[in-house]
Design goal:
By secondary structure, the chain is an alpha+beta fold. It folds into 2 domains: 38 residues; 47 residues, no CATH class. The chain is built from 4 helices and 3 strands; from the N terminus they run βααββαα. It has a 3-stranded mixed beta sheet with strand order 1-2-3. The protein is elongated, with a radius of gyration of 23 Å. The two termini are 45 Å apart.
């Protein structure tokens, strides 16, 4: 996601209402988020779908890392060799069924 350009990327809601198609085109072409204000306060952010998905993916990855760190701290780990051996055994078992 690109950084906010204070001159172009902050618009009042009244501007958005009358220029919605232009604003959608803008966020999709520039990848810049658009801050929407109401009564002088920032109230929402308009972003393109790809940038939104990237943000969601990054948050999901951070959550996985957080959960993994908690598991390590609680001693809920196994040696990699053991895990991979188990995976290989499962693959062989399922390959025989095919």
């Amino acid at each position: 996601m690109a950084s906010i350009n204070l001159k172009n990327d902050i618009k009042p809601i009244s501007y958005i209402k009358s220029h919605a198609a232009d604003m959608l085109r803008y966020v999709n072409e520039t990848k810049n988020p658009l801050v929407i204000t109401q009564n002088g306060e920032a109230k929402a952010v308009l972003v393109d779908v790809d940038s939104y998905q990237q943000t969601e993916n990054a948050l999901a990855l951070l959550n996985i890392i957080r959960l993994s760190e908690r598991d390590v701290a609680m001693g809920r780990t196994r040696p990699a060799e053991e895990v991979f051996a188990e995976i290989r055994a499962d693959i062989k078992k399922h390959a025989k069924k095919i």
